[in-house]
Automatic annotation (TrEMBL):
This is Methylenetetrahydrofolate reductase. It comes from Helicobacter japonicus. Belongs to the methylenetetrahydrofolate reductase family. It catalyses: (6S)-5-methyl-5,6,7,8-tetrahydrofolate + NAD(+) = (6R)-5,10-methylene-5,6,7,8-tetrahydrofolate + NADH + H(+). Keywords: FAD, Flavoprotein, Oxidoreductase. GO terms for cellular component: cytosol. It holds the Pfam family MTHFR. Its cofactor is FAD. InterPro entries: FAD-linked_oxidoreductase-like, Mehydrof_redctse-like.
Length: 300
């Protein structure tokens, strides 16, 4: 496992693939899932989620460490400002450094109202920009309280998320600029992209901003195969920052009425064609498979 090699490939090579992993609610890692993940050789890094949609999951930091040790590949740990304040987050990131966990996908976090722990309260001390600044400070040898670290950290790498779609495209450009100005970001991961045109827009603008800011921020396109009509409706109606063409929804609706096998067939065909189209534009993907490693093999 070589984190620096992964970072260099992300920045310099023409292809990159990360795979999202969402650990189950258990005191132990799913051994069968780990074995399936070990079998996927072409993945450059795994991304461990942090209670997505505010639904309870075990600690993303501890699970990332366990996954990294089991898979022998870099694991990017997702962290949000939703559940912890800056003291706790800085402490967690600092302590994780000794265990070799040095890559983080930093988020503001989904609203508690979306989750399954409605009695919980969101912290939301700040946005993902604050997490980026915490990581920058740690790399400079300073803790969140401004005090100098007794021992310096091994370099920590920060990744952030950007929407794939907006009614006002300029708002995406503005957010890219804001994130690049706030902290050092190794890569921007996008929400799922469902057209080559959207991929071109995102790639063109990150390249322009990199030139303007003299930065070297990579772009990783989110890719989520839509295998059912229900999922297509959720993406269309419930997930901000994502646009799925009505044509997809209509095809899946027709297939849905014919049965689950036809629905899966149409979903897979649509998704394969999409990936081939996007690969012509940019071949760096973050694959979201809802913990279905065998589905990933259909694409890689």
């Amino acid at each position: 496992m070589n984190i620096e090699f992964m970072i260099e490939k992300l920045r310099s090579c023409k292809s990159f693939l990360s795979l999202e992993v969402s650990p189950s609610v258990s005191a132990q890692l799913d051994k069968q899932l780990v074995e399936q993940l070990q079998d996927i050789q072409k993945v450059d890094a795994f991304v461990c989620t942090d209670s997505p949609l505010a639904r309870f999951k075990p600690s993303s930091i501890l699970n990332s460490i366990k996954l990294q040790q089991a898979l022998k590949k870099p694991v990017i740990c997702t962290l949000s400002m939703r559940d912890r304040n800056s003291i706790a987050l800085c402490g967690d990131i600092l302590a994780a450094n000794e265990f070799g966990l040095r890559t983080f996908l930093t988020l503001t976090g989904d609203s508690i109202k979306n989750g399954d722990c409605l009695e919980a309260k969101g912290v939301f001390e700040d946005s993902s920009l604050k997490l980026g600044m915490i990581i920058d400070n740690l790399n400079e040898g300073k803790a969140v309280n401004g005090k100098i670290l007794k021992e310096k950290v091994d370099t920590i790498y920060n990744f952030q998320v950007i929407n794939a779609y907006a009614n006002n495209p300029q708002s995406i450009i503005n957010k890219m600029q804001k994130k690049l100005n706030a902290s050092h970001i190794s890569a921007l991961f996008t929400q799922p992209v469902y057209s080559a045109k959207a991929a071109e827009f995102l790639l063109t603008n990150i390249e322009t901003l990199n030139a303007q800011n003299k930065s070297n921020c990579a772009l990783v396109l989110g890719f989520f195969p839509v295998m059912s009509y229900k999922t297509a409706l959720f993406l269309r109606d419930k997930l901000p920052g994502v646009f799925i063409p009505n044509e997809w929804v209509q095809k899946l609706e027709k297939a849905h009425h014919k049965g689950i096998d036809e629905e899966n067939k149409v979903g897979l065909e649509n998704s394969l064609v999409l990936m081939q189209e996007i690969q012509k534009v940019h071949n760096k993907f973050h694959f979201m498979s809802a913990n279905k490693p065998n589905l990933v093999k259909e694409f890689i």
